[in-house]
Structure formats: structure tokens, C-alpha cells
Recover the amino acids of this structure.
């Protein structure tokens, strides 16, 4: 079978809604796009532990501390599920990790913002995990089997992340004037970066069309962003917090909430490495890798000794 | 082998009597560590009552191109299914 025939067969399989497995024939471009997208996703989970890890020692109660620890541990797990799934495409995890540590890999721009107060823990769970759920629910139907299966596993765990965040925000919003102010401030800071998480508008997104043609993605960035806004506006109203967008209004005809202009300049600036925390995040990941070195070496030495 | 250890495939059993199913994989230096990592990665909410780990390079699998010829022999044996046989009307419990 020649390449053209193989490609036609592959696209027919996608068209029929079949799931592609690691050993199936796939176009090189499909493989490369998946490696790019999945490794960025894995890195995001991994780096995503840092803004919340920052608050574990300062959680206001033992209950909140246990919850936050469990959530951060879940994110480490999410990273591992997706690194595993990415490896099925024939790339070594070490190579992916190297790309992250030397700064050549990308990850979600949201994690380059600082977590300044305890209210940020609430807002991150509510907005950032909320946005992740919208995105990942779609990806659970992705055409690549290992990716879709990792997403199903992750989606089961994300609801707890979002709910615990919303609970923190609800508590603060119903608290003292100072606590409410803290919650509102966190909402104001995280709202726009959360909308940017879905990536550039459909017009500006070079990869989207191809990913949708191959059903790696089922919905476009703008569709997902709209879904997130529609879900979140009533949730903010319910706890009497305002979203920092004067243009936010319900379109009675479409039933969707229309929102104002996103500052894409800021988005591209953060992607390029100039966000408030880019350098800090990479430094923390590199330090963790270095500090874990002796553990990896000791484990290997132990295994070697016991195998001989 | 780099310093992340070898790769192990993880199989979890969700409850007693259920089959072990493939859950994913982990890197680990040895089997004991692989089991601990598998527990932390694939059973944080009681998803497993039992875990198997197997070095990935010890698993041998059919390949997708086998799909036709390899499984062919079972495709044309309708007589292995009960629907192949006819029973006189009114007879029950056969
Ligand atoms: Fe996650
Ligand atoms: Fe999460």
C-alpha cells in the first residue's frame, strides 16, 4: 500500500469515528501534532502543582491542608498519565522532561501567574480546574486512544478540584468584609488569564483546523471558551462576586454570555516567557529534578544489588 | 536504561473476582518500587484491591497488521456458537 492509500484509509477510519491505537499506521504529522499537544498538556499538569504547592504550608486549617495536598498530588498523577500516553507515540519521557527543564517546551500560560493570597487557591480550583474540565471533557473523545483514556481518568478526579475551590471562594465570599475583598481580588486577577487558557481565537489558531480534521479535538478554542463563560457567570452571581468585564452581557437570542476583548498581547507575551513567574517556575522544576537525583541513583543502586 | 529506571506496565483489579485490567505504566528501579508507584499513580481513591506490574519489554503483543490473518481461523466457525443449531419446536432447556 502506498502512502497516499494509507492516508486515505487513516482518514476514513477517523471519519467513521474509529479510535487510533499506538501501533496503528498514522500520518507523521498526526504523530507530531499529538506529541506537541500531549507533552504541553503533561508539562502543564506538572508545572501546575507549583502555584498551589506555594500555599500548602499556609493553609488556614488542617482540613484545607489535606485537601490541597491531595489535589496537588492528583496533578502530579495527571502529569504522569499524560507523559505515559505521550510515550506510546515513540518518544522517551526523559526527552520530554529535558525539553521542559531547558525551557524549550511550552505549558499552559496560566501557571506563569503568581498565587498571592489564600483566595487564589479557591479561584484556581474554580476557574483553572473548571476551564480544564471543559477542555478535558472534550478531549476524552479524542481520536487517539491513549490520550482519550488518560482524559477519562483525569475527568473523574477534576470535579473534586473544582468543587473544593468553589467551596473556598464561597466561604470567603460569605465571610468578613476583608475576606470578601480578598475573594474578589483573586477573581479579578484570574478571570482573564483563565479565558486565555483555551488558546488563541479560532482565526488565529494555526493548529486547530488540522487537529479538528483528525478529531484530536472535537470543539474549537472559541466554542470551549464560550462554554466556560456560560458555566461560570451564574456561579459568580450565586456567591455575589463580580467578574471583571463591563461588557459581559447575556445575548437573549443565542442564550450565550457575550464577553469583552481579551488582551492577546499579554497572552503572547507570557507564552514567549515574559510572564510574571516564567523564570521562577522553570527554576523550581530544575531544582526539584536536581534534588531528586540522589533518590533515583540510590533506587537504581539498590535494584542492581538485589538483582545480582 | 536512563536514571528513571525501567518501564513497567500496570494492571489493576477493581474488586475481588474482577479481572485485572491494564491501567497504564510507571517508571521504577525495581518491582517493589513499581508497585508503590503504581499504587500512588493509579489507585489514589481505592480504585484497586490488587495490582500487577510487569516489565514492559516482557509483554509480547499481536500487531494491528495481524488483525486479518492472525484472527482469521475463528471467524468462519459459526458452529462454535449455539445459534448455529436448530432444536425441535417446543423443546425447552436445551
Ligand atoms: Fe489536572
Ligand atoms: Fe485539577
Amino acid at each position: 500500500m502506498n502512502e497516499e492509500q494509507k492516508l486515505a484509509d487513516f482518514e476514513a477510519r477517523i471519519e467513521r469515528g474509529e479510535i487510533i491505537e499506538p501501533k496503528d499506521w498514522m500520518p507523521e504529522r498526526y504523530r507530531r501534532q499529538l506529541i506537541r499537544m500531549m507533552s504541553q498538556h503533561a508539562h502543564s499538569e506538572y508545572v501546575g502543582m507549583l502555584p498551589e504547592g506555594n500555599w500548602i504550608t499556609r493553609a488556614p486549617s488542617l482540613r484545607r491542608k489535606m485537601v490541597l495536598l491531595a489535589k496537588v498530588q492528583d496533578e502530579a498523577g495527571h502529569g504522569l498519565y499524560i507523559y505515559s500516553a505521550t510515550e506510546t507515540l515513540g518518544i522517551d519521557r526523559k526527552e520530554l522532561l529535558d525539553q521542559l527543564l531547558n525551557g524549550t517546551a511550552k505549558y499552559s500560560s496560566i501557571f506563569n501567574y503568581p498565587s498571592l493570597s489564600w483566595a487564589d487557591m479557591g479561584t484556581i480550583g474554580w476557574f483553572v480546574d473548571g476551564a480544564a474540565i471543559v477542555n478535558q471533557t472534550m478531549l476524552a473523545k479524542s481520536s487517539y486512544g491513549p490520550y482519550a483514556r488518560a482524559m477519562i481518568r483525569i475527568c473523574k478526579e477534576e470535579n473534586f478540584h473544582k468543587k473544593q475551590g468553589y467551596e473556598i471562594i464561597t466561604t470567603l465570599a460569605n465571610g468578613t468584609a476583608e475576606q470578601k475583598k480578598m475573594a474578589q481580588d483573586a477573581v479579578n486577577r484570574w478571570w482573564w488569564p483563565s479565558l486565555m487558557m483555551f488558546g488563541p481565537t479560532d482565526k488565529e489558531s494555526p493548529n486547530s483546523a488540522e487537529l479538528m480534521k483528525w478529531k484530536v479535538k472535537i470543539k474549537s478554542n472559541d466554542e470551549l471558551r464560550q462554554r466556560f463563560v456560560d458555566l461560570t457567570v451564574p456561579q459568580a452571581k450565586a456567591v455575589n462576586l463580580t467578574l471583571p468585564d463591563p461588557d459581559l452581557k447575556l445575548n437573549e437570542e443565542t442564550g450565550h454570555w457575550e464577553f469583552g476583548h481579551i488582551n492577546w498581547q499579554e497572552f503572547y507575551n507570557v507564552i514567549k516567557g515574559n510572564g510574571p513567574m516564567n523564570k521562577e517556575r522553570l527554576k523550581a522544576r530544575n531544582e526539584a529534578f536536581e534534588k531528586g537525583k540522589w533518590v533515583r541513583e540510590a533506587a537504581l543502586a539498590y535494584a542492581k544489588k538485589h538483582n545480582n | 536504561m536512563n536514571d528513571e529506571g525501567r518501564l513497567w506496565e500496570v494492571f489493576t483489579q477493581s474488586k475481588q473476582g474482577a479481572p485485572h485490567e491494564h491501567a497504564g505504566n510507571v517508571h521504577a528501579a525495581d518491582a517493589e518500587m513499581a508497585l508503590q508507584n503504581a499504587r500512588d499513580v493509579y489507585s489514589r481513591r481505592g480504585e484497586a484491591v490488587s495490582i500487577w506490574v510487569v516489565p514492559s519489554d516482557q509483554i509480547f503483543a499481536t500487531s494491528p497488521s495481524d488483525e486479518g490473518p492472525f484472527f482469521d481461523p475463528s471467524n468462519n466457525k459459526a458452529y462454535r456458537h449455539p445459534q448455529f443449531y436448530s432444536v425441535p419446536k417446543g423443546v425447552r432447556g436445551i
